[in-house]
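haha ok so turns out i had the wrong file open the whole time. this is the CORRECT one, sorry everyone. sequence first:
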Amino acid sequence: MSCCQDPRRIDPQTKVGAWHRATFSQDCPLSWVSNKLAAETGEVCQAVITLEGEPCREGRIYENLRDEAADVLIVLYALADRAGFDLDQALADRFGVVSQREFTPCVVRRPRAELTQVRVLRVNP
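then structure:
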């Protein structure tokens, strides 16, 4: 039996929602929670920037990124609980729509050293 089929298991949204209400009050406005989400998302971005600035080492654990991403999920579950919708169901529904779209592939920029070899075409006036 998987964890998701265990009737004794409390879903993350219920667990986080109860903790969030007990910790930050029943009357915490959605705007405060959404601002907390923006702050946590910024911390994920900072963790990625830090990782990309470090030399790549095989087997490196991305603990800070993992922790910051988990913080984003905690705030998302709290937001969904306070707003009254099931985040897991919203994710499933939305992914069904988004996964059908066509996207432009990610383009990785070349390092500046490679760009110096690009020829410049000058046009005489």
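The chain is about 60% helix and 0% strand.
again sry for the mixup
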